[in-house]
Amino acid sequence: MNASDTRCDVVSTLIMSWHVGSLREQDRNAFEQHLLFCPPCLAQSDKVGLALTALAELPVDPPPELLRRLAERTAPRPRGG
Amino acid sequence: MYWKFLRGGAHSPFTGFSWASRGGVWVTADAAELCIQGIHACRIADLPYWLSDELWEIELADPVREGEDKVVGSRARLVGRVVDWTEQMQRDLSEGCVRRTGLHAAEELRASGLSEEAAALEAGSLAELSAVVVAIAGRLPGRASRAAVKLCGYLQDAIEMVDVYPVATIAYIAARAANQRSGPAATNYYVLEREWQSGWLAENLRLAADL
To answer: What is the pLDDT of residues A34-62, one digit of tens each?
Structure first.
């Protein structure tokens, strides 16, 4: 992924991966630069971060089903025309 | 010395790590809240890629790894805030980027033989520019190059967004717009526009390039 040519729908699919630290360096760089010039994607990433922080504070591990649904909710959605 | 952009309240842009709570003491990258890669900072040339609300001087302990558009260290401390990076200064840079987008559009119009339209883009105030570019865009089909048409589109975007989007957005639009310029294929206009932006920041914020 090139930092000068990232699209919101691509960035949206990478939010969970960024938060768990599994992006490659070049993709992480492009992802982070995109967040700075794209307030909607930054807000979406912030929400995921808050949700993950809340989950981490639970006394038990979150069920896989909950993590799967969270990942689904951060995936890109088709946009109406 | 390096620099680091932070969100309001001295928070890291992505992790939310609070630098203010560390009060200028050395912070290590293995703190849970920080990026696993290390602590990121900017040389002057890197600044346009990471624009945000607050700009700070930051000291990184050796070793410092040099990346393409950032530097990374394992220990750092904030030295002081660049107080000239105000909302007004951010607005000034945004307007400068709109102007630059207009200049790129004007040069492509001129290359298409549309000198009158080019001059109109260069002459108008920012407030007038919106109406000017809309009027010009309506006259372009069949007369202007593809690059000129695209650049007028980017200019319209930049004008519409300058009042509501952060400076990082407008600077990005300007760099993307520059990348539409016709010219030698080997010329990276995106990078050249980022270089103009870093020069603007260095001059207007009086940043000393001692590295």
So the answer is: 999 999 999 999 999 888 888 888 777 77
| pLDDT at residue A73 in the model | 73
| Partner B, chain A 9-38, Cβ-Cβ below 8 Å | 18, 21, 25, 28-29, 32-33, 35-38
- The predicted model gives B171-180 an average pLDDT of 94
This prediction has a pTM of 0.87
Phi and psi of B55, rounded to 5°? -120, 130
Question: How high is the mean pLDDT of chain B?
Answer: 91
- Chain A residues within an 8 Å CB radius of B15: 49
Average pLDDT over residues B109-130: 90
Q: Are A33 and B169 an interchain contact pair (Cβ–Cβ within 8 Å)?
A: no
SS (H, E, C) chain A: CCCCCCCHHHHHHHHHHHHCCCCCHHHHHHHHHHHHHCHHHHHHHHHHHHHHHHHHCCCCCCCHHHHHHHHHHCCCCCCCC
Confidence of residue B31 (pLDDT cuts 50, 70, 90): low
CA distance linking residue B161 with residue B155, whole number of Å: 10
The letter for the amino acid at A45 is S
State the smallest CA–CA distance between residue A37 and chain B in angstroms.
4
> Rounded to 5 degrees, what angle do the CA atoms B42, B24, B93 make?
40
Residue B120 sits at φ, ψ, to 5 deg, of: -65, -40
* Chain B residues close to A18, C-beta within 8 Å: 14
Query: Considering only CB atoms, which chain A residues are within 8 Å of B69?
Result: 3, 29, 33
Q: Are B168 and B52 in contact (CB under 8 A)?
A: yes
